[in-house]
Amino acid sequence: MPFKRYVEIGRVALVNYGKDHGKLVVIVDVVDQNRALVDAPDMVRSQMNFKRLTLTDIKIDINKVPKKKTLIDAMEKADVKNKWENSSWGRKLIVQKRRASLDDFGRFKLMLAKIKKAGIVRQELAKLKKETSA
Amino acid sequence: MAAKRKTPVKTRNPDLIRGVGKYSRSKMYHKRGLWAIKAKNGGVFPRHDPMPKAPAADDKPPKFYPAEDVKKPLLNKRKPKPTKLRASITPGTVLILLAGRFMGKRVVFLKQLTSGLLLVTGPFKINGVPLRRVNQSYVIATSTKVDISGVNVEKFDDKYFAKEVQKKKKKSEGEFFEAEKEDKKKLPEGKKEDQKAVDATLIKSIEGVPELKAYLAARFSLKSGMKPHELAF
Question: Large ribosomal subunit protein eL14 domain location, by residue (chain A) (predicted)?
Answer without folding.
Answer: 45-117
